[in-house]
Amino acid sequence: MPSSFQHWDPHPVAITSARGAWLTDVDGRRVLDLSMGFGAMLAGHLNPAIVGAVTRALETGTLFVTPSPVANPKRPSDSSAGSASTSCASPTPAPRPRLYALRTARAFTNRKAIIKIEGGYHGGYDALQVSVKPAVADAGPEGAPTPVTPFDVEAGTVHVVPYNDLARLEQLFDQYGAEVACVFMEPVLENIGIVVPDAGYLAGVRALCDSHGSLLVFDEVKTGLTAGAAGASQRLGITPDLVALAKSIGGGLPLAAFGGRADVVACLSDGRMPHFGTYNGNPLVVAAAIAIDDIATPEALGAAEQLNITAMRAIDEIIATHALPTHTVGFGVKGAVTWSATPVRNYRDYKRTDFAAAELSWLWGVNRGILTPPGLDEQWLVSLAHTADDMSLLVEEFRELAGALRA
Ligand code: PMP
Hints:
The protein has 407 residues and is an alpha/beta fold. The chain has two domains: 4-47 and 297-406, Aspartate Aminotransferase, domain 1, CATH 3.90.1150; 52-295, Aspartate Aminotransferase, domain 2 (3-Layer(aba) Sandwich), CATH 3.40.640.10. The protein is built from twelve helices and 13 strands. The strands form three sheets. It has a six-stranded mixed sheet with strand order 5-4-6-7-8-9, with helices on both faces. The chain has a four-stranded mixed sheet with strand order 1-2-3-12. A hairpin with a 2-residue loop joins strand 10 and strand 11 (334-338). The protein is globular and about 60 Å long. The protein starts with 14 loop residues before the first strand and ends with a helix. 4'-deoxy-4'-aminopyridoxal-5'-phosphate binds at residues 38, 98, 121-123, 186, 191, 219, 221-222, 246.
């Protein structure tokens, strides 16, 4: 069953093949891919290193459900705890890592409640379905949002805070701190464009968690390797207790993982929170993860980030020349045009952005052979396969759009 995200209005684009940064659609049209599997295809489509590693893995078996040096390899970087690199995401690549990260936090703290960010998306686990994209009319005051739970969800106790708002977080901790297992959040929000933390915000969250005995869980599914070779945590200098990873660390295969502080992940092996799953540690996806870990070097990621910065600076100039009420935001190899004259610091700011302009801009690109993510809430990804010429296509397409808007 395809993901609901594969349907978009007015018509989804159907793709038959992909290589590097380019897709071919059912009509034989070549499309520049800047969605890149919602950010999962960091390596580029059919990257030879990934294809080679997976092909070799196919020759030795795809599932043993036993301990295996192939499925649980020791890597030279295994000692660098806190890094988001795949090799450090102990204990094993696993399906549903957000669910397990949350349950691990509960098992470790012996508490059940969680705090999440309004507008934060973390996949399908019930507790994390609260206030993902609530209607503002249902969501209470901006500074003290009410949790909004879809009808079919049994969430447990979930408190919701605005991103970049330490005062509200502190109030909730003062009131409920003794019950809170963890703050579960993306360090940089990447499901409402790209929303970066204010200076000192994440350090403040870290300190509040510590003073109330709660864990800090970073969902780095979207940041991960796209934020740098050791993820957003390292880039921003804040170490979470647990980290959930997926997308970019899998080289395009369906890999997800979580890991973190040794005394916390000990819950998984000492019986407090067993971790089951037929496909856990699947050798095929582990082969892909090792290959991407090898090729996503700081140098390779730095070069892709430079292409991203160059494209964003060119788009900034076009925005300034045409006096458009919009701006670019980038983080690592990801970038977005946010249709608002002022920075977006949280979900309510995002809801005040110009969605009609965002949709127009997206359709403008699709009609000119450039596919950015369809949801109007994600960001483009400059993969290891994109070139300066590819990124110029995005810039020139934006220049045309800006001219048309001001014509
Ligand atoms: N966490 C975040 C931050 C995400 O952006 C996503 C997907 N966009 C998920 C979790 C869920 O990942 P998956 O779709 O692989 O279950």
